[in-house]
Amino acid sequence: MKPFDDYPRGGRWPLGHSNNVACRTGYGLELQRLTGQTCCAYCGVSLIVDYYRWLFLSVDHVVPKSAALLLGIPSSYTEDFFNQVLCCSGCNGFGNRYTVPPALGQALPEWQRDRFVELRDRVFNDRRERIAKRRAIERASLRGNLG
Ligand SMILES: [Zn+2]
């Protein structure tokens, strides 16, 4: 499943995490170099076409930390690069305050890696659909304001 198929080891195994707290010059840059991603995982806009696009680079934790607490997922999974995607700041804003719907994932006493990867993929699809809807609604409301 895109974009994870393009990650090392098909994005199905932990890849480590960054200790650098800066996004564009730290963990976002490391994620970009590690995975080769160049576009927003949600809307597809290129983030590397020039420096101005790069300024919109953001990183999304697909399964949010809050869900990790609620569902008993180890933070070693949610903090890992294999739970992160490059995205534009617009999509990151649309995706804020996301909570995992109960239909997508229930708490487990122990999270095996493959179960987590399945959850991550379901959550990614759900987030991508929600962001696309919110984007379309905002865009429609701006009809006449944009060139
Ligand atoms: Zn985007």
Written overview of the protein:
The protein is mainly alpha-helical and 147 residues long. It has one domain (4-141). Helix content is 43%, strand content 7%. It is built from 6 helices and 2 strands; from the N terminus they run ααβααβαα. Strands 1-2 form a two-stranded antiparallel ribbon. 29% of the residues are buried. The mean pLDDT is 95. Residues 40, 42-43, 45, 87-88, 90-91 line the site of zinc ion. Zinc ion binds next to β2 and α5.
Mean pLDDT: 95
Nearest-angstrom radius of gyration?
Answer: 16 Å
Number of strands: 2
Number of helices: 6
Listed once per kind, the bound small molecules are: zinc ion
Report strand %.
5-15%
- Return the string of H and E elements: HHEHHEHH
Q: Which secondary-structure class do the elements indicate?
A: mainly alpha
Approximate helicity band: 40-55%
Short descriptors:
single chain, 147 residues, mainly alpha, two-stranded antiparallel ribbon, globular, binds zinc ion
Task: Briefly summarize what is shown.
With 147 residues, this protein is mainly alpha-helical. Helices cover 43% and strands 7% of the residues. It has one domain (4-141).
SSE inventory with pairings:
Blueprint: H1 23-35, H2 51-54, E1 57-61, H3 65-71, H4 75-78, E2 84-88, H5 89-94, H6 113-141
Antiparallel strand pairs: 1-2
The chain binds zinc ion.
